[in-house]
Amino acid sequence: MILARAFVVALVATTIVACTRVGTTPVAGTGSGPQRHPWTVPDTLRVASALVPRTLNPILGTQTVEATLARLTTDVLVTVDAHGRLVPDIATTVPTQANGGISADGLTVTYHLRHGVKWHDGAPFTSRDVKFTFDAIMNKNNDVISRHGYDVVDRVDTPDAWTVVFHLKQRFAPFVATVFGDSDSPYGILPAHLLATYASLNDVPYDAAPIGTGPFKFVSWLRGDRIEFVRNDDFFGGRPKIKRIVWRLVPDENTEITLLRTHEIDWMWEAQVTAYKTIKALPDTTVILQPVNGYVGMMMNTMPGRATANRALRRAIVMGIDRPRLARDLTDGAGVVATGDLPPFLWAFDPSLSDLPYDPVAARAELATLGYSPARPLVLDFAYENSTIMLRSLVVQVQSQLATIGIELRPRGQLSSTIYGGYAAGGTLARGHYDVAAYEWVAGIDPDDSAQFVCANRPPNGYNESFYCSPAMDAAQARALGSYDIAARKPAYATIESLLVADAPMDFLWWLRNVQAINPDLHGFDPNPVVETWDIANWSI
Prior knowledge:
Elements (H helix, E strand, L loop, with lengths): L13 H4 L2 E3 L21 E6 L14 H10 L4 E3 L5 E3 L19 E5 L14 H12 L14 E8 L2 E6 L6 H4 L13 H4 L20 E7 L3 E6 L12 E6 L3 H9 L5 E5 L4 H4 L6 E15 L10 H9 L3 H9 L4 E2 L22 H10 L8 E8 L3 H15 L3 E8 L1 H4 L16 E7 L7 H4 L17 H11 L4 H18 L2 E13 L23
Parallel strand pairs: 2-10, 2-11, 14-15, 14-16
Antiparallel strand pairs: 1-12, 3-4, 5-7, 6-7, 8-9, 9-10, 11-17, 12-16, 12-17, 13-17
Helix pairs in contact: 8-10, 14-15
């Protein structure tokens, strides 16, 4: 489908998003016949992830692993294919101005839903479920980490069981890619008939045993060990080819690699870049480098009262970190040195952006101006997620580099569910309980980064966990979001990127390419730039 110009903003060049495959060992018969490696379990997908989910409720998720798991059991209205193109999921078409799904003034967006869709318990799926899920996301009693995009909706109408109409308060260019789409918060749709009676969804049985419309049904969750799913034979997209999924929770990268080497798993989900060199040398393993709109960075807390609230200090920290060396030493080529948050494959990327240079002499001079010296050292709390070798190695290197300019970092490692937890759950970042933090971010398919950098999205209202607030940034973001025309949005993003360099709420170290290591007997694996499991019903093993 050719999208109207208003929503071409959600597209990514197909030649750039295509996956890169390395280390493949061909096996006779695996491409067209029934032959498999002897260690492959037919029709059973065995997965391992280092990140440990806190919830299986898609609207309460705060981690990429939760979004990946949620797509097994639930669906969105519009998803993205492996080339970054918007495609319908539980909606029948992608709304555009050309097909009448988006009104001429850009304030009304209409979705037509598939007929005959059933929840896993056999109840019919209707437009009521979409409206209920929207209301649940907007319900302040629910620990939803971001309402970005949803908060521009004035009301939701359901004129019949298969039609949902969103009336917007203002034009919002990324709406179709954001609301029940593959955004930085890809929320799946919930069953109203099971959850509508609860005042809050923060602690209900559903959160650990979801029922959805997706290609797989939840079976069990053995905390700290594994989650199991079985095929949904009534899936609206056709019966999935894989019968069973065993998702192992392995918060240790070395153990994951051992499981891959001994063929006890078929997919090492989003392996850290530090494992790339080892993994790509393994025989009988296919490694895919998946470009995503994401980065690894150093986030700085700008809340009043923190030393890092000082702009000059933040800039000194950036100038004290050798980004090219970190990317070289820690990613072995899987990561690409970043200049900002938006990677080159997005249309909003600004190739002329001039970032702060690595300049430890200037950094030390700036710290002296601020009153810090060997006699009065600057000591900062350094929060990081401790399950991966990459982040542990990053902490050591950054700690060493900043020590040379007179900053002492005191590392504090935490589980992913703790550091990335939501505001109500007491998450370290959401509550602002840190000075600097090692930070990994994966955004949606649209270049919209306002969820992280506008004043209104500071926790508990969104992902702005650096608590950065700038009138100039808010104005630039308003320009970027208020037009459906790329030509109007692009210069706004150039301003946004230059403000991020100037104000330094974040030091963007390198752009991510997810490292996916799979059994060559797994066929059909084609992750999109946001969620790997968007089309898992088509995979086979």
